[in-house]
Amino acid sequence: MTQRQTQSNYSRNRLKLLRARIRELKLDALLTLDPANLRWLSAWQEVFDDEPAHLTLVTAKKAYIHTDSRYADALHARNTQGLWQVSPKVTGHFAYVQAVLARTHRQGLRLGYESTLRLDQYKALKKALSKTSVKLVETGRVFEDLRAIKDEEEIRLLRRAQAITDAAFAELLTWVRCGMREQEVANRLDFTLREKGAEDLAFKTIAASGPNAALPHARPTRRRLRTGDFLTLDFGARYRDYCADMTRTLVLGEATDKQRRIYDAVLAAQTQVKAGIRAGMTGKQADESARTVLRAEGLDESFTHSLGHGVGINVHEGPVLSQQNTAPLVAGNVVTVEPGVYLPGYGGVRIEDFGLVGERGFTSFTSSPHALIEVL
Ligand code: ZN
Ligand code: ZN
Questions:
Q1: Top CATH class, 3-147
Q2: 163 CA distance to ligand 1 centroid (A)?
Q3: What is the pLDDT of residues 139-178, one digit of tens each?
Q4: Ligand nearest to the CA of 321
Q5: Three-class SS of residue 147?
Q6: 358-372 pLDDT, tens per residue?
Q7: Is 54 left (phi over 0), alpha (psi -120 to 50) or beta?
Q8: Which of the ligands is closest to the CA of residue 308?
């Protein structure tokens, strides 16, 4: 099979999953404006960017893309199996929806839209359909729920994104040193990710040293790395639209006993979660498991964020591993496990891997070492 045929097979299968949900929700059609949803549904690689230029409309029999003319040629070229009706945009997206639905001549047709639709878009949609009998139905997050379960093609791309990220980290260890500024470290790491094959970054790289490492979402500053610092690096490659996400915390110079104690506690929490996570466990149970380990060390109150999140086309997607998520994980979820301890004014440690949830356990995509690294 050619690569294009393989992609069509994945697309066909994802359309099938979506149509099953459309039937369950008693809808006649479902629309989305999120380009990540179209990227997932079409399985087309290297066509879409973050620009919300496309409307996707799926019915029981057909799948439509209404797109900006700048993308139309590229989408036509991908549509070799004819799974999609691709139309370059001449009217507004919602006038197009109205015209397509009018062709069915059905009264009281139920059109689903996702809860993430922006309010102004919802109002425009409602207005475009005001003279029709179409009923608008809010559906929740149909796409996000489907996208939370990865197929083998997605797992392949996620593994590749992480392999690039691991390779960039190995190279960073050859050049990172005291005296460099956080911004220099982040810039050079970004360049290294691209050199190793990243098409883009999955998100803005974090390089946080010394007291800045106590901020889970620190932006790189002009602070220079010093002996005695923790250095937290949180970064990931984007490969064929799929994200990687990893964190490692290094010590500059020889680690003190206090640094080792904090590091070992975070690593023990991460190790315990990865050993226990599997389908059927809830996001809350996974989060609690990390907190229990940190509590034994008196550090649970310094773990100030949730344990992890799903990763796919977006770096943050479902399911979340947090106190709020009482839904069981299912085989095919891809999640991060990223406990952290943050001591204001002192520094912090976070260790993050990501991988696949299976019936029997967790398979990490991250192959970088976990033992404490001292940059001497
Ligand atoms: Zn991260
Ligand atoms: Zn993360």
A1: alpha beta
A2: 15
A3: 988 999 999 999 999 999 999 999 999 999 999 999 999 9
A4: 2
A5: helix
A6: 999 999 999 999 999
A7: beta
A8: 2
